[in-house]
Amino acid sequence: MYPLGIVTGPETSPDSVLEPVLDRLEAEGSVGVVRPGDPTAERTVYEVGEDGWAAQGEGLDAESALSTVATAHDYGLLVDFPDAAVPQIAVGAVDIEEPAMVAESPQALDLDAVVSTAEAGEPIETLDSLIARVKASPKAELSGAIATFTGRVRAKEDPDDDPTESLTFEKYEGVAETRMAEIEAELTDRDGVYEVAMHHRVGRIERGEDIVFVVVLAGHRDQAFEAVEAGINRIKDEVPIFKKETTVAEEFWVHEREH
User: Fold this and answer.
1) Which SUPFAM superfamilies does the record cross-reference, listed alphabetically (predicted)?
2) CATH class for the region spanning 127-258
3) What CATH number should be reported for the domain whose range is 2-120?
4) What residue ranges do the domains of the chain occupy?
5) Comparing 2-120 with 127-258, is the CATH topology the same?
6) What is the pLDDT of residues 154-188, one digit of tens each?
7) Tens digit of pLDDT for each residue in 139-152?
């Protein structure tokens, strides 16, 4: 899912930007929206009706809500969350750092450029969104297994180590995506493997957060497990993604330490 933020100045209604952007993006795919509210629920409550559903609860910030939206949508819009780490469209008198697009008014917004701006950014994928993708395979009726791998930021290798605060990943643009797609295709050629989906996040990832996912849809569990193991090993060995580790004591590029 491609995320995009909308931030408006005090003289610009967020809806005056949201509605045309929604209409344009919905011509390309499904869109989920996360916007500020004033929920007061002390319990998590889902309201379900014939025409849709609504929910409220505690403990969910804007970016976590956006990750939830990623499971079933092609685009995700954050409305008036200026500090969110997504490409932002600034409309009106807005003071934010490095917006992806700027327009003086809703009427001045280039809606085709909105689509290209969204799709130029880093997509959001979660384990759930990748599982949903492989389940949608035309060959899903032949499968009896889904196996997954999730890599995360480990705090310590050994109990006496300085704790890791975060990892930062950078990729060789274009080459990394191409190699990942090739690995997915090659694993799918294996006997009994019907669908493979992989994703490696980039940027700063905090301790305890997820980094990389491999999901395999296969006929049987042994085929699924073997393909998952091969997938993560090949990502580490073949995909040009570089890792910087930040501990409480120092910061360093891991590939420089290994050589």
Assistant:
1) Molybdopterin synthase subunit MoaE
2) alpha beta
3) 3.40.50.300
4) 2-120, 127-258
5) no
6) 998 888 888 899 999 999 888 999 999 999 999 99
7) 999 999 999 999 99
